[in-house]
Design goal:
hydrolase, mainly beta, 2 domains, Tachylectin-2, Chain A, elongated, 35 strands
Length: 449
């Protein structure tokens, strides 16, 4: 059994949807503060630096959330951030200077101590915090690197799940193409114990949640850095039998371009909420990769999980209630802009925006800081070109550099620095291989960032 730390602890999370959705009718604008979770967008910490926390998870202790992950440029070292609202993250720092090449790091609490487990050279490596807080930059190595019992398998990806009664489990993508679940032996130091389940499937990126007595295992197929349809398995006992293999999102979307990292549970005063924490990898898994956080709809009657695809949303950490941005402060139809080139106006939209065409919106009122601007458009072939935006005549910026979902979803919010007063935004395209056109419905401008 794993002792509960001297605080309220939530490792993973669950949500039941239906009438629990509420409209986000108002948001308090805080200077330089993030007001939305925006899947796919570049996410920065409170200092303005890009968040580097891939392959990790989020732990809640009392009213504070701790995000653990890794970045590549720093040598793949565990990296810690903290937040009280899941949107604005302060960089605590790198957890240690004693290890590099640690992938998929996870927190765990046992025997009065905080540990970080991660994969180094396909073995389990353990770090321990010096004191009672997990938000430390002085974790030290403890014990020896280990393989998976009982037959010394190596592994690639890993996850951690703590059950209702406190029993903890290690989820691993074994190199024998088996998804393995082991007990975690408590105490200090912690060790990997008995194997309780062995799924003969070539899957990785495991995460788990539990709702109304049903265990749900979320996994990805093995396709390198390319996204694929993440699958969901279920069981009424953690040792199986495991059934399912259903899609967590429409198969054609490849999990909206992402791969599972972990699931977060928020036990709120109004509802219990589950959140999918995913990575949107670039072609090499570099620090240019972004994040895909989306609410999960849980059905224990059909034994399925479904991602709720929202371009901009938030969650109240106290109540657990999800809210989403259903209106902007200002909306511009594409036909209201200045249309140049061979593009064609049809009703309120502009079609056939090729490399020789663009649409310019004038009198876009800015607050003198970053604001979200949502571009509502589709493209003819996402692999054949880029849509871009120019702010006040500056050099165009590809929307995909600001939001990894660009070209794949029809609403793409991006953070733009707008001067105070009137601004000019120009939407255009660049073909990179063959014919490429965009169809623009318009833009939505939010006062908040």
């Amino acid at each position: 059994m794993f002792a509960t730390p001297p605080t309220t602890l939530h490792l993973i999370s669950d949500m039941k949807f239906g009438a629990t959705f509420t409209f986000l009718l108002s948001l308090i604008s805080i200077a330089l503060a993030v007001s939305f979770i925006v899947p796919g967008a570049v996410w920065t910490d409170t200092s303005g630096a890009k968040i580097l926390a891939h392959g990790g998870h989020v732990m809640q202790v009392d009213n504070t959330f701790y995000w653990l992950g890794y970045g590549s440029a720093a040598g793949v070292v565990p990296n810690i951030y903290e937040s009280t609202d899941l949107m604005n993250w302060e960089h605590v720092g790198f957890a240690t200077d004693q290890v590099t090449g640690m992938y998929r790091p996870k927190f765990i609490y046992s025997g009065g101590k905080w540990y970080i487990w991660g994969q180094v050279n396909r073995e389990i490596v353990t770090l321990v915090a010096p004191g009672s807080t997990l938000a430390s930059t002085e974790y030290t190595l403890t014990g020896s690197p280990a393989l998976l019992p009982p037959d010394s398998r190596s592994f690639s990806d890993m996850g951690v799940f703590v059950d209702d009664g406190g029993d903890a489990y290690f989820l691993s993508s074994a190199d024998s193409n088996n998804l393995q679940i082991n007990n975690i032996d408590g105490g200090s130091p912690i060790t990997i114990g008995t194997r309780v389940a062995d799924l003969e499937a070539a899957v990785e990126a495991p995460g788990m949640l539990k709702s109304d007595g049903v265990y749900f295992l979320v996994v990805s197929q093995k396709t390198g850095w390319a996204a694929n349809p993440d699958k969901v398995y279920w069981a009424t006992s953690i040792d199986g039998p495991w059934q399912g293999g259903t899609d967590i999102a429409p198969e054609s979307t490849n999990t909206y371009g992402s791969q599972n990292s972990a699931e977060l549970m928020i036990v709120g005063s109004s509802t219990t909420t589950y959140i999918f924490l995913g990575d949107i990898w670039d072609s090499t898994g570099s620090d240019a990769s972004n994040y895909e956080w989306l609410p999960i709809s849980v059905s224990t009657s059909s034994n399925t999980l479904t991602l709720q695809d929202y371009a901009m949303w938030t969650v109240n950490p106290s109540s657990g209630v999800i809210a989403f941005a259903n209106f902007a402060n200002t909306t511009f139809n594409a036909a209201d802009g200045i249309v140049r080139g061979s593009a064609v106006i049809k009703k309120r939209a502009v079609h056939n925006i090729d490399s020789s065409s663009n649409v310019t919106f004038t009198n876009v009122i800015g607050k003198g800081d970053k604001q979200w601007v949502a571009f509502k458009y589709t493209v003819s072939n996402v692999t054949a070109g880029e849509a871009h935006v120019s702010v006040n005549g500056d050099a165009p910026i590809n929307l995909s550099d600001l939001n990894s979902r660009a070209g794949y979803r029809s609403t793409i919010p991006v953070a733009l620095a707008l001067k105070e007063g009137a601004n000019t935004l120009t939407f255009g395209t660049t073909a990179t291989g063959g014919d490429f056109e965009a169809h623009l419905e318009g833009i939505e401008v939010f006062d908040d960032y």
